[in-house]
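Write out the bound-state structure for nicotinamide-adenine-dinucleotide.
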Amino acid sequence: MAHEVTFIPGDGTGPELAEATRRVLEATGVELRWDRREAGIDEYEKHGNPFPDETLASLKRTGVGIKGPTTTPVGSGFRSVNVLLRKELDLYACIRPCKAYEGVRTRYPETDVIIVRENTEDLYAGIEFEQGTQENAQLRQALAGLGASVREDAGISIKPISVFGSERIVRAAFEYAIAHGRRKVTAGHKANIMKFSDGLFLEVARRIAEEFPQIEFEDRIVDNLCNQLVSRPEEYDVVVLPNLYGDIISDLCAGMIGGLGLAGGANIGTQAAVFEATHGSAPKYAGKNRMNPAALMLSGVYLLDHLQETEAARRMEDALAAVIRRGDKVTYDLKPSRNDPSAVGTSEFADAVIEEMSA
Ligand code: NAD
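---
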């Protein structure tokens, strides 16, 4: 039976990366029926809304989507499509596998970690009180009544971490570990300093870990975790983190595996799962057939896994890994020099992966 998947090309370099990925996914032979929907700055300029209701409705209906990057204007304009998506679909888990494929220039060739980031709480919850406002003054007054003084000239961001949010993200990390044959989950936190937010996250993590005795569990203070990831990456397997640390550590690990061109990801929620690359729309390269489609293709591999098309997922990943390993038909960012004239374009990279799959 065909799988129906919402296909969102995005904007900037998104459409060419999405097209390359779509061709490779189809070449796996898995029957995919695309419901193509728009989102991003082009859609905003054409119809005044960067995230049309039909796109959201499609994701709710199919429950699964693949998305090219979308631009968020700085300052004025509209809110990030990604933030809206996360909120509307309650995409609470951001899962970013970071594996160093052979052939990639990296100082950390042993890296093979899965970053599981909580996506809805923490300092990113958007609960902020601007310095100099009435609300800020009210909050400071309430805090003073509780014996906590905050300077008058301070801006304030609130860091909520709940039992509910921590339970579901830690459980997602353990369930991922079991489904993908992983052996260990590490929880990152700063519970020694933030006892009632990170401390609660750690307490919940320890409790949930008891439900999964077959998987090893440990915790690390997040600064030490950074140090250890770049000293002994081979010791880490699945790493679960609250929102802010997850954001930072997933970029750290993206750097360790050879850069943004290779970092794919999944946003998993209660209503849907949306697969997309970590990188943005790189608008200055739009239409140049230059960007590396591997990050979105890897997101496509995770999409196939999610659809339980495991054999096709491995075939696609192996073909992608072989093209990267050989290094002749890859984009500029995977070449030893950025100006290497032998670098191929986005579309030719896809051709090479398709050819490899049919070899
Ligand atoms: P970016 O990731 O788009 O690009 C930064 C640089 O990284 C590029 O100039 C390029 O040198 C390199 N790069 C990125 N993707 C690459 C690829 N596939 N292959 C090779 N090199 C690649 O980051 P930015 O310039 O900060 O953001 C541009 C826009 O994208 C912004 O509007 C931002 O809000 C948006 N954004 C969207 C998403 C998303 O849709 N998920 C994520 C991050 C940023």
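---
The radius of gyration is 21 Å.
The chain has twelve helices and twelve strands.
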